[in-house]
Amino acid sequence: MSLKAGTGHRESPRLPHAIKQRARPRLLLVDDDLRIVQYEAAALALLDEMCGLAETGRLPAPVETAVVKAVRDIDEQHHHATVMPVPALIIHISRVHGSDRSFFALMLERASRRAPVASAVRRYSLTNREREVLELIMRGLHAPDIATELSISPTTVTGYFKGLLRKTESKSRAEMIAKVLGWDEGDAHAPHS
Amino acid sequence: MEQPYQRSRVHRYVVIVDQSGNVVAREDQPENIFAPYASGELPQEVRSIITSARPGAPHAVSEDVIMHVVPFKGTGGRLRAAIFEEVRVRAANQ
Fold first, then answer.
1. What confidence score (pLDDT) does residue A153 get?
2. Nearest alpha carbon to residue B58 among A92, A107, A19
3. Distances (CA, A) of A163 to A134, A158, A190
4. Quick one: average pLDDT of B2-17?
5. Hey, is the C-beta of A5 within 8 angstroms of any chain B C-beta?
6. Could you report the predicted ipTM of this complex, rounded to two decimals?
7. Are the C-beta atoms of residues B2 and B24 closer than 8 Å to each other?
8. I need a labelling partner for A66 at 20 to 30 A (CA). Which of A104, A105, B7, B49 fits?
């Protein structure tokens, strides 16, 4: 399949039906203050369905909380992060730069019908506490916040984290999240640890 | 069972363009497969698709990459996004 300039190409007839019909992510752009500056209506509809919309121009509270934490991980070496602010919603965050402006691009996707964390509990034989820690990791939280959330010490959280890495046979937070989301086949876009 | 092309869904690259197809912003350091779309200017045939495409429909831009065109609303001018996505079209066709 190739594209040639001037062919008037609009949509490849050779794309398999399954690819044409598959759901694509919904996209919105936020500025450094996480205010929504560009959006597609379907992205807002998905947020509203999942979390209820917040005030105009803002992300819903659970989404904003997760994104605030996740964008801290995005720097010159790590360009992506992925969070699950609520169980059925995956948000892939990346930094997009321009000459005079930059944004965070938020790609919103529904989680699969099989809840990723529930699947991971079965697949990796996780304990109840490991499941709780994993759910908070998927929301973008790090050890101090997880410790507060679960009323345990950060050291204990680190212990659970290491246990999760061992059980999922992951070398990093990123690899573990990718595996939980089923993206463990050469995923280069997963969030880093 | 999940199809092979579905497993590659996270391999994506986002470029933001204006109504004329000029690049306004883009992600840094794309994977090699997205390198043709990571310069300051998109290939002409890709620009023409972006500026005229029916939103939402995926477009094949190479053997292994499809592109979704996303029209935006909001402040700061009418922008569009091109989401390039690696797919295994040949595998899915088999």
1. 93
2. A19
3. 11, 9, 20
4. 60
5. yes
6. 0.79
7. no
8. B7
